[in-house]
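Consider the following input, taken from an annotated entry for Transmembrane 9 superfamily member (Tagetes erecta).
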Amino acid sequence: MADQVQLGFSFHHFIIFVFHLLFFIHGHSFYLDGVDPHDYYKGDHIAVKANKLASSKARKLYSYYSIPYCRPDNIVNSVVNLGDMLRGDRIQNSLYVFQMRVPTMCNVVCRIKLDEKTSKDLKDKIDNEYRANMVLDKLPLVVRINDSQSGYQLGYFVGRKERCPNTKVEKYFINNHLSFLVKFHQNAERGTARIVGFEVKAFSINHIYDDQWSKMTHLTTCDPNTKRLVTPSHPAQEVDDNKDIIFTYDVDYRESNIKWASRWDTYLLLVDDQIPWFSIMHSFVIVLSISGMVAMIILRKIHRDIFKYDQLQTLEDAQEETGWKIVHMDVFRPPVNSELLCVYVGNGVQFFGMILIVIIFGVFGFLSSSNKDGIITIILVLWALMGIFGGFATARLYKTFQGSEQKNMRTTFKTSCMFPGIIYSMLVILNVLTWAKESEGAIRSDIMFNLLFLWLGISVPLVYIGSNIGSKESEIKDPVKTNNVVREIPEQPWYMNPSFLIMVGGILPFRAVFNELFFMLTSIGLHHFYNVAGLVFIILIITCSEIAILICYFQLCGEDYQWWWRSYLTAGSSAFYFLIYATFYFFTRLNITELVPGVLYFGYMLIASYMLFVLTGTIGFYACLWFIRLIYSSVKVI
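Applying the prediction step yields:
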């Protein structure tokens, strides 16, 4: 009884500790109405926050003030959570401060004189098509595409370059005038207004002023007294050594019918309009085709085989038969290196559980893809909490393989440390490279420590708890007995070669989601939202399961009973094709010429490929395990 009380007391404190950890990781970002009052509101004034410089071409992230923009005297970093840091967000104060619902024009921010270094930095950012990102009331700054109603891009271009038609000399121009549009929703009952949209138009204006420069200088190119807005017809501001650049901005306000609680829906709807529904339907057609093939080739044939086997009257008749039933005494024989297989299956269960819960939460509206930082935080915490299921799956499977208790502890240790250890080590290496290039995309050391704590402090103990529960469960009883004498596998034709089948097996799952990969990678590169991950995940589960079952059945019909590892590798080989496609995407779409950004890209794609291998391999393994237990429990063994 005392032990039970002590166990309950410890578990209670563990739950309290997890909740404290969630709040700690989230960086105290739970504000009323989703607003940080210290950051965004100062009476009737609202402050715009500067964020990172991002490019889908160069892939490196930089601080907003890494180029000569107007800087406050004291730069203050806003509180961000773990998700913000992993995405490379750096929220800082700026000199852009608006008065709520008071339109203004031709506000002078500052004047900056370029030198050789700052001029070179600006030209480099313009060459790599960098966009400057800003935030107002947690809404990202967007640019409407071609004044349309169906497309936004995050952030405005730092500038542009043009080639002179006569001299063919390239000139660089900076966007130094920002025309902001703040949309607000009026609450008639409360008499308040809330921000529901934040847009901008960026122009390059070669400002001209009278006399000498001062804070009261009158700009002849931007006159607020005459209400004359800046237009693109003015001469552009060139970027060159010893050039003076004057930064200005306009602010306009527009009432909107969008409520504050639904302000993200506009952004998501605009992106959803670009979702490749045709390609998704094409993928579903592929899934239906594979399902039909499995139904005709396997289900009908298995039904005929079971009927035939059940008609056998004597042992001599059974021995004359060939096919999958003849290997029934060897099909559940433990595989070679069963310990490593249990480790990978346990890691896959942990990863699968995390993805499944995130998608379920998203379907029921508990998560929004607009809150990417929160989703990343939840994903990491859920992965750590799913460790209990990973440990359970590892121990239960290893016990089924008749593994010893001593080796079970070693298997549990590998489950808790091998997969996350490889991922964390690769992140450290990539982060060191990012630090070396002085990119703002580097994850801070304290955030890396938080990730390490999630792994060692939460995931590892839960894996051991799950393993302890799994080892006490009864082993999975096989529907048929295993013979002590190992049956010899007959010589197989070339098309039944394990390497060939494994590589062929990965093509169909990859092909089913191939059309979506381009849009997923593009969304990641442009920092956009991708809202059909759940559909892609369902397609992936179905195709991995069906192709693994199909190849496993053909293998058993050839009297090859070594299916354990092959079922895992068949579905898992789709990760190899993902890596090939990522390489193709790199050389055909990204135009990255520098070494470090290229290494970073392939490093992160390698991490994604490894995760995909563990996930799809586990799906294929359990699909085959269910299928084989089903068919061998349906026949009479003589």
